[in-house]
Specification:
mainly alpha
C-alpha cells in the first residue's frame, strides 16, 4: 500500500467513523426521539445519559472515545504514518463528530473523541485534563466551565511535559475547535426569542445558552419552543 493510499484510508476512516452520530442513533433506537430536540441538543454522551438512560452515557462515551478517537490515531500509527498524520486523523475525527455530515452538520462537543485521541497521543495531558475537569465539577458543579478551563491549560501541559511540536499544535487545535463549537452550537437549540449576544458568554464559559444549567439539560421539545 503506497503512502497516498494509506493517508486516504486513515483520514477517510477518521472522518466517516468520526461523523457517526452515536447518541442520535441510540436515542432513535431506544426512545424513538430526536435527541437534538432534548436538553442541550448535543449529540454526545452527556445528553444521551440525561434523556435515554444513565447507562447509555458510558456506552456512547466509550464508542466515541475508543472507536472514533483512539482508533483513528491507532489506525494511522498502524499504517506507519508520521505523528503529524496521526494528529490530523484525531482532529478530523473530532470535526466529524462535532459537525456530522450524516445529520445536517450538527453533532456533539467532541470531548469523548478528543479524550480517545489524547489517550494514544498524549496520555499525561489526558490525565491532567480529566483531573482538573472532574475536580472542578465535584467542587463547583459546573462541568462546562471546568472542561473549558482544562482545555485552556492543555497546551501549557504539553509544553511542560516536553511534547513534540505536533502534540502542542494538537492541544491548541483542540482548544480552538472546542471554543468554535461552543459558540456555534447546534442549529435550533437556542430558546425562542433569545438573542445571540445574550447567549455568547454563557456558551463560551458554560457551554449552554442560558444561565440555568438544570433547566438547560432537562428541556423537552415543548419547553424549548416556549
Amino acid at each position: 500500500m503506497n503512502d497516498v493510499l494509506m493517508i486516504m484510508v486513515s483520514l477517510g476512516y477518521a472522518y466517516l467513523v468520526g461523523s457517526v452520530p452515536t447518541a442520535y442513533i441510540v436515542a432513535r433506537l431506544r426512545k424513538g426521539v430526536d435527541i437534538r430536540r432534548y436538553g442541550s441538543g448535543n449529540i454526545g454522551a452527556s445528553n444521551a445519559g440525561h434523556h435515554v438512560g444513565k447507562g447509555w452515557f458510558f456506552v456512547v462515551g466509550a464508542f466515541d472515545s475508543l472507536v472514533k478517537g483512539a482508533a483513528s490515531v491507532g489506525l494511522a500509527r498502524a499504517l506507519g504514518l508520521d505523528l503529524d498524520y496521526q494528529v490530523l486523523a484525531a482532529l478530523i475525527a473530532i470535526v466529524g463528530h462535532n459537525w456530522s455530515a450524516y445529520i445536517g452538520f450538527s453533532g456533539g462537543r467532541g470531548l469523548s473523541v478528543a479524550s480517545g485521541g489524547l489517550l494514544v497521543l498524549a496520555w499525561m495531558e489526558l490525565v491532567a485534563l480529566l483531573g482538573v475537569a472532574v475536580l472542578g465539577w465535584l467542587v463547583f458543579r459546573s462541568a462546562g466551565l471546568w472542561f473549558g478551563i482544562a482545555l485552556l491549560l492543555l497546551p501549557i501541559w504539553a509544553l511542560f511535559f516536553g511534547e513534540p511540536v505536533e502534540i502542542v499544535v494538537f492541544c491548541v487545535a483542540l482548544l480552538l475547535v472546542s471554543a468554535l463549537k461552543r459558540m456555534l452550537s447546534n442549529p435550533g437549540t437556542a430558546p425562542k426569542g433569545l438573542r445571540w449576544r445574550d447567549m455568547a458568554i454563557p456558551r463560551l464559559l458554560y457551554d449552554r445558552d442560558t444561565s440555568n444549567g438544570g433547566d438547560w439539560t432537562t428541556r423537552t421539545p415543548g419547553e424549548s419552543e416556549d
